[in-house]
Structures are given as C-alpha cells and as structure tokens.
Amino acid sequence: MGYVEKLLSKNEKIMASARQHWTTLAITFIINLFVAIVLIVLAIVLGNQSFTQDKSSILRFVPPILLILLVVPVARFGWDWLQWWAEEYLVTSHRVIQTEGIINKRTKDSSLEKVNDIVLTQSFFGRILGYGELEIITGSDEGVNRLHRLANPVKFKTALLDQKVALGHDQAGEQVRSIPSGGPETEDDPLKRIADLDNLRKSGALSDGEYQTAKAKLLSKL
Questions:
Q1: Contacts (Cβ under 8 Å, ≥6 apart) of 148
Q2: Which one of 135, 153, 174, 198 is most buried, counting C-beta atoms within 10 A?
Q3: What residues are paired with 121 via a beta bridge?
C-alpha cells in the first residue's frame, strides 16, 4: 500500500490524480545539462593537453576529477525529479488532497463540502502544452489552494466538479431519508415540514425532484 492510499478513510476512493506538468523540470534540466556538457568538454580538452605535459604534472589529474564532478548535475536533476514525482494532487470521493515531500511528507487536504469556487488560468503555451494554474477557493482558514503548473488541469477540474455534485446528491438523499415518515411533529404539522423542505431546496441541499417527492408524501397526510 502506497503513502497516498494510507491517507484514505473507509470507503473513500481516488477519483482523479495529477502532478505538475513536465515543463516544471525543463529549467533545472537545461541548467544541469549545460553544466554536464561543460565538464565533459573541459575533461576532453584538458585530457588532450595532459599528453603534451610531463607525466608528473598535476594536469593529468584534472580530467578524472571533472568526470567525478559530473555526478553532481546528474544527482541534482535526479533529486529534482524525485521531488516532482512526490508532489501529487488527488480528488477523492470526499476531498482534495495535495501531498509532497520525499523524506518528510507534507499533506494538505480540503473537504469537497468547503469548495466554493474553482478558478482555472491557462496561458497560450499552457493551452498548447496542456498545463495551467488551478485555484481552489474554500471556506477553510487558508482560503485558497493553488496548484501551480498542473498537468491536464481541465480534466482535473471536471473530475473535482463531478465529484462535488455527486457528493451533494448523496448528502441530499441522506437528508431526505432522515426526514421522519411518522411521529408527532410530522403528523401534527406537515406544513411546517414542507416549509423546511422548501428551505433545503432553496439552499441547494435538495433537488426539485426530491423536494416534490417529499412534499407529496407530506401532503398525502393532510
């Protein structure tokens, strides 16, 4: 079982996952590649010069040292790649999860119930290459979760919205089922129950169809 799977609660499922776009690694790749090329060229040039020098010259030790230093840019890019791979964004059946870190893990999540709005920003190149910035505006203390240079942001946003709608339907169904079918309050004052249902419908907790079904049941008791 992976680290992310351990974060899930009972019956919670992963609906979508994404990482930052591969272009996030472009700058560090170019820099480390340039350093590697410079070290290789210097090793070749100084290696050729060492043949014209006395064998006791310290120059002959320089090319092997440069080749050893070649490990540094390679290792640096490998570390950056691991950090990129460790940062993952998930939409589950209950929340949005952001996890990062290789050795020390950091996880931030927001309940789908608290997601108020989603803002997607894509530049010209972002639309061509398939990345963008997603801002998830929530009712939590931090307010906004920003997912920078997200790969396939439209697909991720759609999955988030679909799951939020599905969660809303589930909650509305639970509320309808929780309305007592009998008991003194329902039998004595069904009009009050209808008014309560109407308030739930106006707040978006109930759909029109669910409201009409529950209303019909109460009216049949009049």
A1: 20, 133
A2: 153
A3: 133
Residue 110: beta bridge partners? 96
Residue 138 CA to residue 205 CA, distance in Å, equals 18
pLDDT in tens, 160-176: 888 888 876 555 555 55
Residue where the block lists tokens 């472009």: 26
pTM of the model: 0.65
Q: How many CB atoms lie within 10 A of CB 128?
A: 9
Question: Per-domain residue ranges for the chain?
Answer: 164-219
Q: Which of 10-19, 21-30, 201-210 has the lowest mean pLDDT?
A: 201-210
What lies within 8 Å, CB to CB, of 134 at 6+ separation is 118, 119, 120, 121, 146, 147, 150, 153, 156, 157
For residue 44, how many C-alpha atoms fall within 13 Å in the half-sphere facing its CB? Answer: 5
Structure tokens at 99: 């996890």
